[in-house]
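Can anyone check this?
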Amino acid sequence: TLSDEFGVTERTLQRDFHQRLVHLDLEYRNGRYSLRRQSNPGAIPEMLSFIQNTGIARILPLRNGRLITCLTDNQEPSPCLIWLPAPDITATLPECFSQLILAIRQCIHISLVTERWYPSLEPCRLIYYSGSWYLIALQKGKLRVFPLADIKSVSLTSERFERRDHIHSLVAEERFISALPHFPFIHKLINTFNL
């Protein structure tokens, strides 16, 4: 037997097989496991990357190929539903959103208009929190937060900047994200009292 050949117990073999096979897109029929016939193997790594990159991984206790297949299978109702408050999409201009994504990805300075003009910003990240999108950017080395609903226009410049990893780590922290709705008030308070 396989356990004798490798000098391990059957239980060890079962555990090892389970750990290695959990990422495969398997289906169970008539007492047998086989690779799912209609799967797109290239989609699973892409979906796992999407889950990790967007922060959804924080709420999923399990992340593997089987889960991805189950969640993306349109033949039956999904066993999971992630319910988030819907943002006011009408307040956010789609072209602004796509320009911001491009600027963040390619490290391009932007200028934007809210109730006033903000030149030469380094856009760091867009974060969706508690029903609203926020743009986190640096202006002359200082952190700025803009609710996307307040942004009227975005312009990309030809100037580039170096991504600052410590800023990306900071803005991904839960304490920072939970403070996003209060940043305009905090910024106004700091400027009023020159803190």
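Reply from J.R.: I decoded it. The mean pLDDT is 80.
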